[in-house]
Structure formats: structure tokens, C-alpha cells
Amino acid sequence: MTKSDDIPAGEDRSVEALRVDLETWFQFLRDISAEKLDPVLSRMAGYSYGYGMAKLEDGDVAAAARQLAWLVNEGCRHADAVGFPGAPRAR
User: Fold this and answer.
1) Between 10 and 65, residue with greater pLDDT
2) How many Cα atoms within 13 Å fall on the side-chain side of residue 66?
3) Which of 13, 16, 61, 72 has its CA 20 to 30 A from that of 5?
């Protein structure tokens, strides 16, 4: 794989919003997995977050958005938990 310079991370507001949403949802799921002692959720959320951030750095916004979608879908299973982030911002 080669790095794409079409949309460098840090230059587009939607990229920064995506980065913030990835971090927010990852932190929420990390806290839920710690509270519920769920190592599988912890690993899956960590993988999704890490892959999404790497894709942002490579300029692949669509792949990062797919990882955010997974985090949001998983997070919505815990919508009644304290700290639920709500819907991600529109891009």
C-alpha cells in the first residue's frame, strides 16, 4: 500500500472531525469494556480505532469512516451507559 496525499490528515475540517469522533467513540467503548471486564470489546475497539487513525494518516477517509461506523454501532448497544457520546457530527 502506498500513502495517498489526496487528503492529508490535518488539512481538512472533516478529517479533523472524523479524528475527534474516532477518539470519542473509542474512549467510550474503552470505558465500557473496562467496566464490564470485556476483553473482546476492548481489543475490537482498539483495533477499529487504530486502523481508522492509520487510514486517516494515509488519507483514506472512507476507510476511516467505516471504522467509525463500527465504533458507533457497537457504542449504540450501550446507549443507556453514562457518557454515551450521542450521534457523531455530520460531515
Assistant:
1) 65
2) 7
3) 72
| pLDDT tens string 15-49 | 999 999 999 999 999 999 999 999 999 999 999 99
Residue that has been written with the C-alpha cell 469494556 in this structure: 33
* CA gap 59, 47 in Å, rounded: 18
> How far apart, in Å, do the first and last CA atoms of the chain sit?
26
* Amino acid in the structure at residue 9: A
| Sign of the CA dihedral with 42 first, then 78, 67, and 89 last | negative
CA distance 63 to 29: 20
Cβ–Cβ under 8 Å, residues 68 and 25: yes
**Separation CA 23–CA 2 (nearest Å):** 25
Q: Would you mind telling me the total number of residues written for the chain in this entry?
A: 91
